TrEMBL record:
This is UDP-glucose 6-dehydrogenase. The lineage of its organism: Bacteria, Pseudomonadati, Bacteroidota, Cytophagia, Cytophagales. The keyword Oxidoreductase applies. It catalyses: UDP-alpha-D-glucose + 2 NAD(+) + H2O = UDP-alpha-D-glucuronate + 2 NADH + 3 H(+). Pathway: Nucleotide-sugar biosynthesis; UDP-alpha-D-glucuronate biosynthesis; UDP-alpha-D-glucuronate from UDP-alpha-D-glucose: step 1/1. Residues 320-422 form the UDP-glucose/GDP-mannose dehydrogenase C-terminal domain. It is an enzyme of class 1 (oxidoreductase). PANTHER family: UDP-GLUCOSE 6-DEHYDROGENASE TUAD. Keywords: NAD, Oxidoreductase.
């Protein structure tokens, strides 16, 4: 089979590379010439564990190629994935201009039957707009070439995207025709070895599935954050409560970790977009509005603890921050809780020295010299009045606490992800604050 993947962002690049990995002939297309030139040399625009090696290997095997032109690359393809950005507009709705521009371009250049698949997260109804855009272009050319549109949402987690793609829990495809179904079945066959299902459905349901999945996960997190805050007030320990409820299979033990709020490029955007879609159609998503509200508050929870601990006087104090990315194993800082915390500390005249295993470049790009950067986690601690654990990178889990104690001015730890145990930390002589645990 031969496919084209348009858009070499996070989703497009992982998708194209993983299809090439199982032997499919893939061309990744992007209008950004510089990006394409770099990719040809094995230089990636994003960090994702394992991806670079996979891109280089598949390029060498000539199963993966890169092009800046859709015009000829689309010829001979069975499937074209649209995986370009859908940035949120001012009002929170997804901006479809890039998706529809690609659709038009496909309509201008396709010369045989093809399945055009939306992979970007797009609102319900987008596949119809894609179909209309392609039809318009075909009509303008005066040709009648059959095609199908499909919706095939991705469920990749940053940091684990390759594993998620190669061993998916499920693959969801919305497509109307049997011909389209057959093509998609053939394409995904190599990924179904572990017995997980390929679920076919109508297009609007597939489009909705993506939003419902992310909204449900965001809801779990905000719910647990709410419970954690109440635990603190009532003298309960949310770590215990989490274990207590997580062992009920109906609830499940995943995605119920309280913290300092969800971030990243997906949950915040998708929750907003679903609320917007509903309101545009006369419905109010009451639960999701609260999910958003709780999440915004949660980003300040750690700061509020710091403020109270220091009696409101933060000016001149130095805070060490461990972890800047919105979660481990990524350099992505979009909507990261670290940004909110840092901004609040700086507003109070505090000094921040941060360290992150991979997001330092991204941080310098976003924060410039408003903060200092440690060479490693220990350097960030020198003379710090407190340590703030913001992202739960594995290497922060068991540091040498003797060294930590010696480097810090004051032994205070604010643990935004509950990776340390309160009793243990107190035994080591630290003043410890977690989320939803007894102080
Ligand atoms: C999320 C979904 O998990 C993917 O299935 C989906 O494909 C993707 O969005 C997308 O729409 O593209 P991702 O944003 O990479 O993936 O990150 P997650 O691992 O889901 O984490 C999201 C946020 O939730 C992080 O800020 C994390 O710290 C937070 N989180 C997660 C918690 O606070 N508690 C938890 O128990 C789990």
């Amino acid at each position: 089979m031969r496919i084209a993947v348009v858009g070499t962002g996070y989703v497009g690049l992982v998708t194209g590379t993983c299809f090439a990995e199982v032997g499919i002939d893939v061309t990744c297309i992007d209008i950004d010439l510089k990006k394409i030139e770099n990719l040809k040399k094995g230089i990636l625009p994003i960090y994702e564990p394992g991806l670079e090696e996979m891109v280089i290997r598949n390029t060498q095997k000539e199963r993966l190629s890169f092009a800046s032109e859709l015009s000829t690359s689309i010829h001979g393809c069975d499937v074209a994935f649209i995986a370009v950005g859908t940035p949120p507009g001012e009002d929170g709705s997804a901006d479809l201009k890039y998706v529809l521009a690609v659709a038009r371009s496909i309509g201008q250049h396709m010369n045989d039957y093809i399945v055009v698949v939306t992979k970007s997260t797009v609102p319900v109804g987008t596949a119809n707009k894609v179909r209309a855009a392609i039809e318009e272009e075909l009509e303008a050319r005066g040709v009648d070439i059959p095609f199908d549109v499909a919706s095939n949402p991705e469920f990749l987690k940053e940091g684990a995207a390759i594993e998620d793609f190669l061993k998916p829990d499920r693959i969801v495809v919305g497509v109307a025709s049997e011909r389209g179904q057959e093509v998609m079945k053939k394409l995904y066959k190599p990924f179904l070895m572990n017995g997980h299902p390929l679920i076919f459905m109508d297009i609007p349901s597939a489009e909705m599935t993506k939003y419902a999945a992310n909204a449900m996960l965001a809801t779990k997190i905000s719910f647990m954050n709410d419970i954690a805050n109440l635990c603190e007030i009532m003298g309960a320990d949310v770590n215990m409560v989490r274990k207590g409820i997580g062992s009920d299979v109906r609830i499940g033990n995943k995605f119920i970790y309280p913290g300092i709020g969800y971030g990243g490029s997906c949950f915040p955007k998708d929750v907003k977009a679903l609320i917007k879609t509903a309101s545009e159609n006369g419905y109010e998503m009451k639960v999701l509005k609260s999910v958003e509200d709780v999440n915004e508050n949660q980003k300040s929870v750690l700061y509020n603890k710091i403020y109270n601990h220091f009696g409101g006087s933060l000016a001149g104090k130095t805070f060490a921050i461990w972890g800047l990315s919105f979660k481990p194993k990524t350099d992505d800082m979009r909507e990261a809780p670290s940004l909110v915390i840092i901004q609040k500390l700086l507003e109070q005249g505090a000094k921040v020295r941060a360290y992150d295993p991979v997001a330092m470049k991204e941080a310098e790009h976003m924060l410039g010299d408003s903060i200092e950067y440690g060479k490693d986690e220990y350097e960030a601690l020198i003379d710090a009045d407190a340590l703030l654990l913001v992202t739960e990178w594995p290497e922060f889990r068991s540091p040498n606490f003797n060294v930590v104690s010696k480097l810090m001015k004051d032994k205070v730890v604010f643990d935004g992800r509950n990776i340390y145990e309160a009793a243990d930390m107190m035994e080591k002589g630290f003043t410890y604050y977690g989320i939803g645990v007894k102080q």
